[in-house]
Design a protein that fits this description.
Oligomer: single chain
Radius of gyration: 24 Å
Number of strands: 9
Structural class: alpha/beta
Bound molecules: adenosine-5'-triphosphate, magnesium ion
Largest sheet: 5 strands, parallel
Distance between the termini: 62 Å
């Protein structure tokens, strides 16, 4: 059972090695990388390629570790008791399973893939609070006095955008992989996967401009894979000729449809200034 990328996902050699190492070690795979470099989609594709179910736990700033295990729904219980509902006598009726529980419970040989997406969004204590549960793949439910244990260890993929440092004790338990920004060859493959048969010249011109753009110093937010894909889609929809992106002309103007690539006004201003200066020099 090895992950080798899929027809929808271009996995570099080092990424495949990392995924398979984490599976062998039965440790969570911690994936970092710039926004839009395919971290979330990676988990989906691992599940698909190994024929496993994907359970996604998307973390927000307010998410607590306990929510991944279970929550006790006291409000429903109170309401049922007021209505005289029979359910009220069994506390188990008010235990709401979390994503970890769901993943531990999967039956048979088929442990699912559990994606804990954007772990760095949560409180700094969040990763520490999950150490035991992810290590031992079990936890205790006080209300019902039962221990929930995974019959098969799920494959755990954790993504982070580096908004917060993760604690050392947590890092020790993970296998780590940083998705490096794709080089032009890999990017060509990724584009081909999304837009099969796209005009080669358009891609070549667009990639030139795109990588030049990423090299401009002082950009607040460099455009990444997902922005490039959006931009190409627009270029195709508008039927723009590849020549419109030619370096000579493009340098003296902000790229067409730049709203797909530049996501804040400072960066747009920066490009307008650069274009203005290039035009002056060219005179
Ligand atoms: N290696 C790849 N192969 C195919 N598609 C890719 C690859 N890398 C990125 N993409 C595409 O880029 C887009 C963004 O990917 P994804 O949402 O997984 O990024 P992310 O790293 O999770 O970003 P964020 O940190 O913002 O959540 C998706 O449409 C995905 O299909
Ligand atoms: Mg993501």
């Amino acid at each position: 059972m090895k992950f080798q990328g899929t027809e929808n996902y271009v996995a570099t050699e080092d990424l495949m090695v990392a995924v398979n190492a984490a599976i062998t070690l039965q440790r969570p795979l911690l994936v970092k990388g710039e926004p839009g470099t395919g971290k979330t989609v990676l988990a989906e594709e691992i599940a698909k390629s190994l024929g496993k179910k994907l359970i996604t736990w998307s973390i927000k700033s307010t998410t607590r570790a306990q929510q991944g295990l279970y929550e006790y729904d006291a409000v429903s219980r109170l309401r049922d008791s007021q209505l005289g509902d029979e359910r009220v006598h069994h506390i188990g009726n008010y235990i709401v399973k979390g994503k970890l529980w769901e993943a531990f419970e999967a039956e048979g040989d088929d442990a699912p893939v559990l994606l804990i997406d954007e772990i760095d969004k949560a409180d700094i204590e969040f990763p520490n609070d999950l150490l035991q549960e992810l290590d031992r793949m079990e936890f205790f439910v006080y209300e019902t006095q039962e221990t929930i244990k995974a019959t098969n260890r799920p494959i755990v993929i954790i993504t982070s955008n580096n908004e917060k440092e993760l604690p050392d004790a947590f890092l020790r338990r993970c296998f780590f992989h940083y998705i490096r920004f794709p080089d032009a060859d890999t990017m060509n493959e990724i584009i081909e996967v999304h837009y099969p048969g796209i005009q080669k010249r358009l891609v070549a011109e667009a990639l030139n401009l795109f990588y030049d753009m990423r090299d401009v110093s002082g950009l607040k937010k460099k455009p990444s894979t997902s922005e490039l894909l959006d931009w190409l889609k627009l270029l195709m929809a508008e039927d723009l000729p590849p020549e419109a992106l030619r370096a000579k002309d493009a340098k003296t103007a902000v790229p067409p449809l730049h709203g797909a690539l530049l996501k804040n006004e400072q960066d747009v201003h920066l490009f307008e200034r650069l274009a203005f200066m290039a035009r002056r020099e060219g005179r």
